[in-house]
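In this supplementary section we document a worked example of the pipeline. Step one takes a protein sequence of length 279 as its only input; no multiple sequence alignment statistics are reported here. Step two produces a three-dimensional model, which step three serialises into structure tokens for compact storage. The input and output of this example are shown verbatim.
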Amino acid sequence: MKYKKFLFTLSLVFIPLFLLSGCEQLLGGDETLDTNAIVQTSIAQTQAAMGAGEVEATTAVPNTESIPPTETVTPTITQTATETLTPTLSNPQAQVDVNTNCRRGPGELYDIVGALVVGQIGDVVGRYQAGDYWVIENPTSSGECWIWGYYATIEGPLDSLPYYTQPPTPTPAVNWTGTWTTQYGPPGGPYYDITVILNQTDSNINGSFTFMTTPYTVYGTLSTDYMTFSGTWDNGTTTGPLLYHWLNPNQFNGNEDSGTNAWCGYRNSAGMPSPCLYP
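The serialised model returned by step three reads:
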């Protein structure tokens, strides 16, 4: 490249000299040309041309290389867990594991007026301080009724729930008055047959029996529902506890001496219950 440039420069110098020489011969030397000035002018023009070429050659060319686009950052979205709110019960509610009768009061002595079945919800309006009973809106009809709490689950606020007083007991369907054929003895036997006569007055029991020619008296009280007779046997010398539990109008089971011996009975040809021992 430099060699070609050098030749180009020489041609710019000598071509004008050659032309001047020819012209000088044509003029015949009558007029003298300032060849030195012409040479100097040609050299200056040549240098100017070379300088311009160098400037043009060395002019910076803008970099047209494509600049890669800046990477676009996608923001990460953080999901916030949605809180599941459990509704708060304003009033307590009852559900049962076993279909449960709803009565006019706390206990089997009261009439059945409705029922709370499995899967059904009863609105609780009161509770019984003396026992495990709850008063609910009658699921079957209008009004209120009482359910036993043994199979019930109660949910909701209880602080303001009022206590209910037990309603007056109806005329008891349980009546212990009569003559009972009983068996007495240790669990597994042998059993002794004893005829026991009982008389009920309200919630009190008095009675008598004879065992091995020795006369005995019995006395005691009934539970609120009249289903359990807790009493004492007495032969004038020795006493001991007894308990009879009503099964139906013609059968009971129970124990003597706080469960040491079984004692059960029947009437009206119902037959002896099994098991004899209670509980």
